[in-house]
Design a protein that fits this description.
Layout: H1 17-30, H2 36-47, H3 56-68, H4 72-84, H5 93-105, H6 109-119, H7 134-146, H8 150-162, H9 171-182, H10 189-202, H11 206-218, H12 222-232, H13 254-258, E1 261-269, E2 275-283, E3 285-287, E4 291-295, E5 301-305, E6 308-311, E7 314-316, E8 318-320, E9 324-328, E10 341-343, E11 350-360, E12 372-373, E13 379-383, E14 395-401, E15 407-408, E16 413-425, E17 431-435, E18 446-450
Parallel strand pairs: 4-10
Antiparallel strand pairs: 1-2, 2-9, 3-8, 4-5, 6-7, 6-9, 11-16, 11-18, 12-15, 13-14, 13-17, 14-16, 17-18
Helix pairs in contact: 2-3, 3-4, 4-5, 5-6, 6-7, 6-8, 7-8, 8-9, 9-10, 10-11, 11-12
Length: 451
């Protein structure tokens, strides 16, 4: 928090060195002698007086006074001066690392990243007697990133983007770190936006790429602005002002939503038991948060809301004609609200009929000492691979025994056909349990797996 003692010097002003120094001396006189933060600010202003005008000697004096008071940002600056041999300061690797480590031990992420740069074999301008060691560099970058340091995050993103030096290439991790920096209000945000745009462009996500180039340009990234201008130079209107592209805002019309049609080619459950529909958009478009109707095998519908959309493994805000996407629609049943976007599946996801390999439990297995007869109508429970039940799927069904059988005895296995009273969301990875009563403590008469 700045007070009235803070300096009011514009770094881009054309005032002379003498004028700027006079103002700083006046401000210094108003400062308390033990104010480490203000001394640090004084050092920054001596470092950037006017344009290309600097006074590194006085800057270092302020930084050193502040550092001796334990101010970690100043300790980092002192370490940097010793590494670079800036101004009248002689290069001293041992002193540099001592000050940087002092700051790093206090949680200063810039100091951690600087130490990482010292050890990083790919970083130029930081040659020291400590040598290069990528493992140590990665360790310090990781510590900085864990504490929210954007310098460390950018270095980790770069490492995961290209791989090597013992780091396995991982584009998703690179995107994660770039996205974090892109959302920060820091000097590297514009670069993070451009690097993200380049990644999305390479994997074919043009909408996200365009939006990020626009954001980077608005933040002042000249290369992104050049890319945008180049793309638009043949258009009738000339790019005169960068405007932010928001997530799908004003890009999808009501008519496109009304025409939305998507073929469901496959589906699965995620770790939280949400349903993920996989398929191609035939017509129209839709956004996250839209309501959709899933057309069942018998022509009836189940309403659900789109929680998220993924394309090529990456989150997007909307899906349009011709795109292959994954829709997260949450749990099986949702309240009917809002507008309808129709989904036409290629095959039934919810079904009443299925076959399963069934084992009738004996008394020793917790079952009953009775056979199961043809046309038996128990309650079917559907179990996820992690052992949790899909509560929305539980319902009664009628079993038909094949191969002319009239019964299955306890301890025996058989393939049976089932027709449920209500359609259930069926998946080959799900297991089934059969009980006679809806009571949670009811004995499991038989168990099996959907074929």
């Amino acid at each position: 928090m700045k007070d009235n003692n803070s300096l009011n010097i514009n770094h881009t002003t054309n005032m002379s060195l003498e004028e700027a120094a006079s103002l700083m001396e006046e401000a210094a006189e108003r400062m308390s002698g033990d104010d480490a933060e203000h001394l640090f600010e004084m050092g920054e202003r001596y470092e950037n007086i006017s344009g290309d005008t600097h006074d590194f000697v006085k800057a270092f004096e302020c930084y050193m006074k502040s550092a001796n008071m334990g101010y970690s940002d100043a300790e980092t600056k002192v370490g940097f001066y010793y590494i670079k041999g800036r101004g009248a300061v002689q290069k001293n690797d041992e002193e540099a690392m001592r000050w940087l480590q002092l700051a790093a031990d206090k949680g200063n992420t810039k100091a951690m990243a600087f130490i990482g740069d010292v050890y990083n074999p790919s970083t130029t301008g930081f040659d020291t007697s400590y040598g290069k060691n990528w493992n140590k560099a990665f360790e310090y970058y990781s510590k900085a990133a864990e504490l929210g340091g954007y310098n460390g995050m950018m270095q980790l993103a770069l490492a995961y983007k290209h791989g090597g030096n013992g780091v396995e290439k991982d584009i998703e991790k690179a995107i994660m770190y770039y996205e974090k920096v892109a959302e920060m209000d820091c000097r590297l945000s514009k670069l993070a936006c451009r690097y993200l745009a380049e990644i999305y462009e390479q994997i074919g996500l043009k909408r996200k790429s365009d939006a990020l180039y626009e954001k980077a340009a608005k933040l002042g990234d000249e290369k992104s602005l050049s890319i945008i201008s180049e793309r638009n130079k043949n258009q009738a209107t000339e790019v005169t002002q960068v405007q932010t592209l928001t997530s799908g805002e004003n890009k999808i019309t009501a008519a496109e939503k009304d025409a939305f049609m998507m073929g469901i080619e496959d589906f699965e459950f995620d770790a939280n038991h949400n349903i993920i529909l996989k398929g191609s958009v035939y017509e129209g478009a839709m956004e996250c948060g839209d309501d959709i109707d899933i057309i069942l095998w018998n022509g009836s519908r189940i309403r659900s809301k789109v929680k998220s959309i993924h394309e090529h493994g990456f989150s997007v805000d909307y899906a349009m004609k011709g795109e292959k996407v994954h829709l997260n629609i949450g749990s099986v049943k949702k309240e009917i609200i809002g507008e309808v976007a129709v989904v036409h599946p290629d095959k039934g996801l919810f079904d009443k009929k299925f076959t399963c390999a069934l084992h009738v439990n004996s008394v020793h297995e917790g079952g009953k000492n009775e056979p199961i007869y043809n046309l038996y109508t128990p309650i079917f429970k559907f179990i996820f691979p992690d052992g949790k039940e899909c509560m929305d799927c539980r319902c009664r069904g009628t079993m038909t025994l094949g191969q002319g059988r009239t019964s299955i005895n306890p301890g025996e296995d058989a393939v049976v056909s089932v027709e449920l009273k209500d359609a259930a969301f069926l998946h080959p990875d799900m297991k089934i349990e059969i009980v006679e009563k809806p009571d949670e403590n009811a004995a499991v008469i038989a168990h099996g797996k959907i074929n």
